[in-house]
Description:
Layout: H1 11-25, H2 30-55, E1 61-64, E2 75-78, H3 80-100, H4 108-124, H5 128-146, H6 152-183, H7 188-195, H8 200-221, H9 229-236, H10 239-245, H11 248-263, H12 282-302, H13 306-327, H14 330-362, H15 384-398, H16 404-416, H17 422-449, H18 468-487, H19 489-505
Antiparallel strand pairs: 1-2
Amino acid sequence: MEGLLPHLAVLPVALPLLAGALSLVLLRHAGWVRAITVVSLSSLLAMSLVLLVQTAGGASWTYALGDWPAPFGIALAVDRLAAMMLTITAVMGIACRLAAGNEGSRRFDALLLFQLAGLNGAFLTADLFNLFVFFEVLLAASYALLLDGAGAARLRAGLHYVTVNLLGSSLFLIAAAMFYGVAGTLNIADLDARLATLPASDAGLAQVAGLLLLAVFAIKAAALPLGFWLPGTYGAAAVHVAVLFAVMTKVGIYSILRVHGALFEAVPQTASTALPLAGLALPWLLPAGLATLLLGAAGALAARDLRVLVAWLVVVSAGTLLAALGLGTVPATAAALYYLPHSTFAAGAMFIAVEFVARRRAGSSTPVAADYRIYAGRPVREAPWIAALFFVTALVVAGLPPGSGFIAKALLLDAAAATPAHAWIWSVVLLSSLVVVVALARCASAVFWGPSTAAAIPPAVQGTGVGGRGLLLAALLLLGCGLVMALFAHPSYDFLRQTAAALGAT
């Protein structure tokens, strides 16, 4: 196993790429495609868990494809953070496939696998240009996944989504070109070493390139004022696509933590550095995070559509993560790393819960006639299990005890207590949490106990399924992951604190 272990770094990228291509070849054989997807997803989860165990003690390694040395070859890096993100992605991929059931186009499985390949590549790459390449792979797959199905709203949201991300890709290329111009490399470790001795004449260009990268990652993370695309996009996506998209904003958060943490947070102040490069992102992250947090909470309160409400909650999670990273301390980063998987699992489960509500209102097992309105739809009184699922998921999303969200926010508030901005952080986090609770309570009141503005569900369809077992299994999987995080909060936090400390040391 020791001889094969280093090669596991490339398999999370290579396996879904090959499986996705094979799925396209066997497009007319649905049974074979389904089997390929199941085997691939199971293998990805198993490999991710192996990497997570192997890196738990602090081990890390770099894998050079073709044995080409940096900065000429493609390098992948494995450490605790990368292994954690691979595991989260594998879980979300399985939940997405379960939630899809028999819905989606014939190409859905291939697109899902390509999406996972792009995500895994972004989490593993050790090179800025390859980060751009993997961004494009996952974005290309996400464009097709978002448009998977009919509807003018989905097409309009897809157009906005594509336009915004094309802008982000253009900025990424410009930033990468500027870095290559001043340093002659795009390998992150090599670039880190060269920035430390950058001539004074090039420091300004490096700073501009770093801020452009920050803007690109802020677009991916849906940070204010660059994140207005997210509610409409996620609100229009099919439920299984929205479940997978719950991890998409985390790519931007991860990239800020990884790239800026490596390139700028530890750059020494030398006489040759004309402009300060250390802590380049920190002055922007905290205010942007707090503003995004308030905007997301206000958007959730004002939402009139169930899916849009959950999409705004994704914005809330992005703001919370940015604010935590903006503190720039090991405890705050560890709190952010604990909150990251919690918010991903909780958002995915919440998308499924509101899908059950919308389908039950229509008395249909398909999303075609689903009623996503909050305040004008038929109340759901005859399905207590849907109410129970909604209540539990809302409790986890809102961060109320005893869920993992409560632990994550408690860790964040404790980390903020020792900072000069603690009063602002406490006020914004607690106020936004209260607004989210009010928004979810109002939604539940209207959905389950509100006055009916439509005819009752005919008796003939009251017992009709509302999406099959796949949706329910996906919700239980995601809620179960959150429960495991809460039950093993202490060892999880110890692992994440060590991860945060290692990132701060790089």
